[in-house]
Each structure stands twice: as C-alpha cells, then as structure tokens.
Predict the 3D structure of the following.
Amino acid sequence: MLIYVLRRLLLLVPTFFGITLVTFVLINLAPGGPVEQKLQAMRFGAAGGGSDSSSANSKGDAAVSEEIIEALKKQYGFDKPVHVRYFIWIKNIFRFDFGNSFTYEEPVTSVIASKFPVSLQFGLASLFLTYLISIPLGIMKARHAGSWFDRVTGLILYGTYSVPTLVLGIFLIVFFAGSGYLNWFPIGSLRSDDYDSFTLMGKIGDRLWHFVLPLICYLMGSFTQLTMLMRNSMLDVIKSDFVRTAKAKGLSDQKVIYKHALRNALIPIATGLSGFFGVFLAGSLIVEQIFNLDGIGLLSYQSILSRDYNVIMGLTFMSALVLLFGRLFSDIVYVLIDPRIDFK
C-alpha cells in the first residue's frame, strides 16, 4: 500500500501540470482579456467627454492607443509569450504567490480566503449531513425493499431530486422567507445585523437559522444519489452467499446487516468521497446567487466573466490539488473498508 501511495503521489505531479497548463493556455487564448477590457473601459470613459473632443482627437488616438496598449501589457504581464508566463506562474506558486487580482486589485490568496469560509461551511455541513442521513436511510430501504416505507421514501427522494436547484431555491424563499407566506427563515447573509451582540449560543443558533434554506438546496442532489446508491449496494450484498450462510447459522438480522453486510456495501460509497472534497471549493453559483452568499461559486463565475486570469488560475490550482488528493484518499478508504483490495 505504501508503494502504491508513493506512486500515486508521483503521478500527481504530471497530472497537476497537465491540468494547469491546459487551463492557462485556454484562458489566455480566449478573447476579451484584461488588457482589452481595460482599453474598452478607457474608451467608454473618453466617449463620455462629448462628440467634439472625440472627433478632434481621432487621428492622434491610434498612436496614443498603441502606447497605452504596450504599457497595459507590461503592467499585466502580457508582454511575454504564453509559455514564458506559464513558467513564471509555476515558479511563483512555489512561494504560494498567485499575483494580484485584476478585478479586486488585491492578492489572489486574500480574495480567495475572503470567499472560502462560505463554501467551506456549506461543504462540511452538506458532507456530514449527507452521509449521516443517507447511509442509515439507504440501509433501512434495503432491509424493507418493496414495502410501503421503501416506496414512499423513494417517491419523495426522486421528487425532490427532479426539482432544479433554481426552482427549489425560489420556492423556499417564496414560501418560507417572508415573501407573502411564512416568515420563518432569514435570507441575504449568514448572520443577523445584531449578530455581535448575541451570546455564544445565540450566535450558533443565529448561524444555524441562516443556514437552513441554502443548505437544503446544497443537499438535495447528493442526498438522493447517495441514499439510492446505499440501498442498491446493500441489496446486492444481502443476496450474496455469505449473507445467506450467516443467516442460516442463526445470526440475527441486525448482526448480519451491520457486522457482515455493511462493510461490503460501503465499498461503492467510498468512490463518492473524492467528489465531496471538491464541494469545499466548487461552491454553488445558483445557491449563492439566490441567497446572496459571497462564496467560491460566485467568485469563479465573476472571475471568468471579467477574465481575471490570476484568480482563475488560483482556483484551478486549489481545485486540482483537492480533487487529486481526494482520489488518493478514496483509494485508501477502499483498503480500509475491504482489506482484500490490494493496490500494487
């Protein structure tokens, strides 16, 4: 196992370089970069001075624009070829220096750090609640397969899964956030205006109360998938010969399920662990937009629109590391669940 882990760690290096290189080249080849956007903003600003001034300076504008373009390229680092800029970026990340954001005019690490807590809180909460509820529910559905409990819960799960996140978010706001119906939950931020005056328990309760509606939107898709995966995996294991043998020896259903069958049924569930690591950074653009949350999802979307290359590459760097190490963690969990698996 140790040799396998070392091999995977070595394989992470070329994989990481491949991901970052492709991303870097693509975003630099895309039209409408920061230099073009800055020039467009300057032209719009100049156009606001009136038609007479613009027509008077029309001949000299080209020469001035060339000087401005060269100065802006040097300012943003676009006076060098793409491959040179990529190697400079690689050299800088060893110092954890991603440069400054073109939009926020702050270090990229500061920009990401300011948005990271929102996605991290919802990522951890959704990960914990999804596994805490989905695994026991999937086991119960498998044990009572075909019963009214299995049918009713399956209908509810598939019904909620079929509702788009945008529609669900609007529904929750309209019916439960004071838009003409029930005014049970607040929206618009993760805490109340007078949050600092609360006691410790009051602050915790206030946070949890603000979490409810966005967290429901975060949970719905992964919750249904994991529950049904657990149910189907457990059903396959229950039909195995070793389970029938255990029952024939007179063991109770509880002991057969939780001591013999559960460990084998959890093997497919381990594959999803690597994907959940991405939740910490991916965020959710739709959820953050609907509930006015300033997280990673909204930052990624705005950075792409504004061609904020340094922020995009910073997010790509962190996402690549999280997902690659998540895959490795998933393989390690495989071995812990089933020692028969041997990676060589």
Summary: The chain has two domains: 33-97, 108-337. DSSP finds 16 helices and no strands in the chain.
